[in-house]
Amino acid sequence: MNVPVITVDGPGGAGKGTLAFSLARHLGWRMLDSGALYRVTAYAADAAGTDLDDEAALAAIARDLDLEFRPAAEGLTQVLLRGVDISEAIRTESCGALASKVAAMKPVRAALLDRQRQMAKPPGLVADGRDMGTVVFPGAPLKIFLTASAVARAQRRQQQLLAKGESVNLARLLGTIEERDARDRNRAEAPLVPADDAVVIDSTAISADEVLARALAAARERRLVA
Fold this sequence. Notes:
The chain is of the alpha/beta class. The chain has helices at residues 16-27, 34-48, 55-63, 93-103, 106-117, 132-136, 150-163, 170-186, 208-221, and strands spanning 5-9, 30-33, 67-71, 77-81, 84-85, 125-129, 142-147, 199-202. It is 48% helix and 16% strand. A hairpin with a 5-residue loop joins strand 3 and strand 4. The model has no long low-confidence stretch (mean pLDDT 91).
């Protein structure tokens, strides 16, 4: 079955989740938050006391995740592991750092590859991640690479954390983002790069609505939306 897929790749904090959610809602398609899969794998391994250098053990955890995604508030997805809501727990900076490390492991990526591809079901799928257009869905008719400056992404993340009542140092947050970017770009397995045929959108100085407008324009060019 030929199911249309739009991939949205890019570094953390560029606005991929917001764009993917908006596209999926606009089109009435399914949505895949691939980053959540790696975050849940890291969270489950850490909770179980698994050595985060044990690739075989981490791959086994990834294969056996009892995981469910549910639509939640505007732009958000509820993530349940064995029926327990861990949506907030996996969105911490510490879990994100662990997920970046886990995502660099070939056995883990292989374990999650089929799970991701199986989510391409009618009427279509919007897939958010870092290698959706290069590895998971290389035949997707529209591949978007959404980026933004590291400073802009750090400032956005700071505002999100402040809104939750958390105190965070901007310089430290920027350092964490730059370190994660370097790890994602330079990893041997599925590095973070735009697909050759990706539409690159820089969200540094434009609104989420403008990002969506540009993505929808690209979708119209490919006759994925009227």
